[in-house]
Design goal:
heterodimer; A: about 400 residues; alpha+beta; OB fold (Dihydrolipoamide Acetyltransferase, E2P); disordered N terminus; B: about 300 residues; mainly alpha; MetI-like fold
């Protein structure tokens, strides 16, 4: 065993890593550097290659091409048990035949550490579970198992801690609690965390840096706020939160805004927030940036106006209300309004206008989506509304 | 799991305790055939066997074979033990050796089928059929076939002698090696299948977790895979050991054994069927049963299967 667990984190570097399985490519030429001590999230839908990436780092898969470096060490061909890496598995994978304490002490004992049991107790104290040390994992709740799994990995003080959707099986309240605890532990022990998840909220609340993965590639990488406020691709715009996207040709690119013709209406986007400045482009704005008006607001400088349109759907979610607004020729817009007054302001079918500050818009780098341009009413939101109507009708019948 | 064959795991006991609330006359009626069958074919013969084991020779029978009267003759047991203790020791020795060999062959086989072939369901099914295939031929015929193969002029002995591995006057049949080999061979499927059932359900993520926690593949096997497959190992070894200890086919001089390899089964058979010495046969049967029960109880307690999930 050459690689030993270290007490501080180490850089993780993936250089041109590809993984091809018979019939499909899970990861394509992945280049990634995760600095020591950071909390890095790989975010993407299922099948995007994020779990394969994690398994390659853990040594459970061998990349078809490329190199994996932990610190200065090339671990590409190193057996998993020799790597200074520990994983919190999605299913926790706690050994069912061992007590909680034996589970936590397992890694320490394998490395021949003398005070393994004492250290395991310390780790259990950290996750506030020392009182269940003698129980079997099956006797614990899901949240407790998750904390044991975390203790079992962290106790080894690995250079790199891998988290494979560890919060997936928990209910919402427990998730929130664990998110905070995980973040605290990361701050306390200072090891590098690589967190794989499909939950954008989890990634945004916990990670310093997020890489959004899609179809085996990283679409965009950056701090959570940066990614959210300025998505570069349609995939990121819609995977990380929701976006209203419009497509159209650029009609003027003078000054520090570009103006796009969206179904006959002029919409402006700041030049430095747009990836493309000519030709057909896709632009967007986040639903919470939109402001709802019941009368025509008229044209103002620095504000985009769309309307009139009709409210399709109002869904009240406590903190905010989501309005779906159909605008002829543009499809359906989604708008979040904070509930500053009680109850929705406008009802179904009301005629409304929508405005947003030009500074809040963004322009995407990818080619405009064909479907977005020619069949705006057939987007996912329209399908979702139809589906919801159908379910409601069924419920009323029942 | 398969351990239930031996009269109920802790799980079933709990179920029975919880049952009274739902007990109905219909359920009792459905149990009746089973109870009647067990009473008639297990309890009655067992009591009869115990009574027979204490019988004394008929004083009016003039020593004619097969004539015994009910008695309470303790000495039957002490006499049997002093006379046949080598056979008793030999039986359990052979049974343990055969069980160990069957385990050493059966476990890797079960592991290969249950874990390595998991991604190829068709091959896995085929391999299982191959494990069970010997059952399509009678146990007696297969053992007899081995007798031919291992016989003094058979291919194995001839080849080994021509390679001077075996001396010219050596033989295989009639030796303990042949008997242990025969028993192990016959019980490999009984060993393999329960272990396969355990390994087939083994969650490989535990194995990955072992590797992740600095355990080499060998350590992972002994710390994770083996303990998790213990229910199958316990069932398999019991399914092999119990019948092997009472086996009288392989050790018989008609098959792979000789008079030097006679096991308790052979002694019981000879006393029951040939010399008609029923009390000796019966007391030997009781001793065999008692020793098996004792060893199995110790074994199950040691291996602690109750703690397994």
């Amino acid at each position: 065993m050459t690689a030993r667990a270290s007490s501080s984190g180490a850089d993780l570097q993936l250089e041109g890593v590809s993984k091809r399985f018979p019939g499909f490519t899970a990861i394509e030429e992945l280049n990634l550097t995760i600095p020591a001590g950071s909390f890095f999230a790989l975010l993407g839908p299922s099948g995007c290659g994020k779990t394969t990436t994690l398994r390659i780092v853990a040594g459970l898969e061998t990349p078809t091409a490329g190199r994996v470096m932990i610190g200065d060490q090339d671990v590409t061909r190193m057996a998993p048990y020799k790597r200074p890496v520990n994983t919190v598995f999605q299913s926790y994978a706690l050994f069912p035949h061992m007590s909680v304490l034996d589970n936590v002490a397992f890694g320490l004992k394998r490395r021949g550490i003398k005070d393994a049991v004492a250290r395991a107790h310390e780790a259990l104290q950290m996750v506030e579970l020392d009182h269940v040390a003698t129980r079997k994992p099956a006797q614990l709740s899901g949240g407790q198992q998750q904390r044991v799994a975390l203790a079992r990995a962290v106790v080894n003080r690995p250079a790199l801690l891998l988290l494979d959707e560890p919060l997936g099986a928990l209910d919402l309240k427990l998730r929130r609690q664990m998110q905070v605890e995980l973040k605290d532990i990361q701050t306390d022990v200072g090891i590098t965390f690589l967190h794989v998840t499909h939950d954008q909220e989890e990634a945004m609340t916990m990670a310093d840096t997020i890489a959004v993965m899609n179809k085996g590639r990283i679409e965009q990488m950056g701090a959570p706020a940066e990614l959210y406020e300025l998505p570069r691709t349609a995939f990121v715009a819609n995977f990380l939160g929701q976006s209203n996207l419009f497509a159209g040709p650029v009609v003027s690119a003078k000054g520090d805004t570009i103006v796009v013709d969206v179904a006959g209406r002029k919409v402006a986007v700041p030049r430095e927030r747009a990836q493309r400045h000519a030709g057909d482009v896709t632009i967007g704005v986040r639903p919470e940036k939109l402001i709802l008006h019941t009368t025509d607001p008229g044209t103002q400088a620095g504000v985009n106006v769309l309307g009139p349109g009709r409210v399709h759907d109002v869904s009240f979610s406590g903190v905010s209300t989501q309005y779906l607004i159909g605008i002829p020729g543009l499809g359906t817009l989604s708008l979040f309004a904070q509930n500053l007054v009680s109850g929705p302001v406008v009802g179904d079918g009301a005629e409304v206008w929508v405005t947003w500050a030009v500074d809040h818009g963004f322009g995407l780098a990818d080619e405009p989506d064909e479907a977005l341009r020619f069949d705006p009413d057939d987007d996912t939101q329209a399908i979702a509304i139809a589906q919801r109507r159908r379910i409601e009708a069924e419920l009323e019948e029942a | 799991m398969a351990f239930g064959v031996f009269g109920g795991s802790p799980g079933t006991a709990v179920d029975i305790d919880a049952a009274p609330a739902r007990r109905s006359p219909v359920a009792l009626l459905l149990l009746l055939p089973g109870i009647a069958y067990l009473a008639l074919f297990f309890v009655v013969p067992f009591v009869s066997l115990i009574l027979t084991s204490f019988q004394a020779p008929d004083p009016l029978g003039f020593g004619a074979p097969g004539e015994y009267v009910p008695a309470f003759r303790w000495e039957n047991y002490t006499e049997v033990i002093t006379t046949y203790w080598p056979h008793i020791v030999r039986s359990f020795g052979y049974a343990i050796a055969a069980t160990v060999i069957a385990l050493l062959i059966g476990y890797p086989l079960a592991y290969f089928i249950g874990v390595k072939l998991r991604r190829f369901p068709l091959l896995q099914a085929l391999a299982l059929v191959l494990v069970i295939a010997p059952f399509f031929i009678s146990f007696l015929l297969r053992t007899f076939a081995w007798k031919q193969i291992l016989s003094d002029n058979g291919p194995v002995v001839t080849v080994l002698q021509s390679m001077t591995i075996l001396p010219d006057d050596a033989r295989i049949t009639g030796t303990p090696v042949a008997v242990i080999f025969g028993i192990a061979y016959n019980f490999i499927p009984f060993m393999t299948l329960p272990i396969y059932t355990s390994l087939e359900r083994l969650d490989l993520r535990y194995v990955e977790a072992g590797g992740d926690l600095y355990a080499s593949p060998v350590t992972t096997f002994f710390q994770v895979t083996l303990p998790l497959s213990m229910p199958g190992v316990v069932s398999g070894t019991l399914l092999t050991f119990i019948p092997a200890a009472g086996d009288y086919i392989n050790a018989s001089s008609d098959f792979l054994g000789s008079t030097q390899t006679a096991m308790i089964g052979n002694v019981i058979e000879a006393n029951f069927l040939r010399t008609q010495n029923y009390p000796v046969a019966a007391s030997l049967s009781i001793i065999l049963m008692a020793v098996i029960l004792l060893l199995v109880a110790l074994y199950v307690r040691r291996s602690g299967t109750k703690d397994l999930v």
